[in-house]
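== Fold encoding ==
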Amino acid sequence: KRIIGLPGETVRIQNGAITIINEKYPAGMNLDEDYVKGYTRFSATTTLGKGEYFVLGDNREFSSDSRQWGSLSEKMIVGRSLVRLWPLAGAGLWPGIK
């Protein structure tokens, strides 16, 4: 799953478009998800509490994720990415570690 929303943020999904509202973007920031195509059948707004994350699968049409079971508690996050393949310019091992 892909972490879309962080603690304290509001995630708004409207006809498949995702907007993140937080202190830096009080009017909202639209996510550019060019890797997700054609899924527009879901709309909802969720405000995340302390230690809560909003996760979505990339295969939105068939993914079971925060849209079905709500926010994910931080204690339930047990893994991390080993390899990043896309975009090619960012490919490498242990993405996010500098």
